[in-house]
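Researcher: Please translate sequence to structure tokens.
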Amino acid sequence: MTSKQELILQLEPYGLGENESKIYMFLLAQPGELSVVQIAKELRLGRTPVYNALDKLENKGLTAKIMAENGYNYTANSPDNLEEYWRRRERKVQRLGAKLPDVVSALDGLATGSGHRSKTKYYTGRDGLEQITYNSLRAKNDLYIYEVATNMTNFVNKNTAEKFRQILVEREITTHQLTNYTQIEAFTEVERMITDFWDIRHIDPKILKIQFEMLIYNDVCALYSVSGRDIFGVEIHNANLAAMQKQIFSAIQRLAKPMKKIGLNGEAKV
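Model: Translation complete:
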């Protein structure tokens, strides 16, 4: 059986502080409502910390206050409300995450001379590649990709990959993709990305053998390796380099053969 102290530790990642957890578990075990004075006395806490914790619990839907003769009494709501609170929090985080690239771009634009500065950023490991991919969601209209890995899940978990694809659709970013593969297996449930925002083409490796993943967008060229133990990436922020790379991409794209999309989930073949 899980001890109360273990439960307090388990609840902390879900947004409950120590006093919140203690008070909520205490109220769950009570047959009726209790006043702040009673709660404070039983748990040996000051009244102010109890009031603060009860306010937070009420905002999470875990407690309810009931009008009593001398103020309010408090009672615990069902633990099922914790799941609903967490779902609401997840939805809020997703909405904020979708807006974050715009916020970061706006902040970056405040830096002195940011429009003319060149910079290089280095990333390592799968977390680093996930960050590079997330950064590419800042693309304005178009994202150009030399593709080595046919599926983002080679380095990003499936749920995260699907969230990224959904953001691409919400932001109406078209992905222009060049690959040496002649066939790509289905990889997504985000159907609008496939139907409306995905341009996939095969380039013969005799013309260009793609050996390194590369993303081009805005004033950024990002390169990364996903093979073996050598997992790293580099972002180069330089307007002239990005403009030149877009020109090269367009030239190669004209030599590439559009792939036929099969269904709505990303399957394609030459």
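Researcher: Any highlights?
Model: The chain has nine helices and 14 strands.
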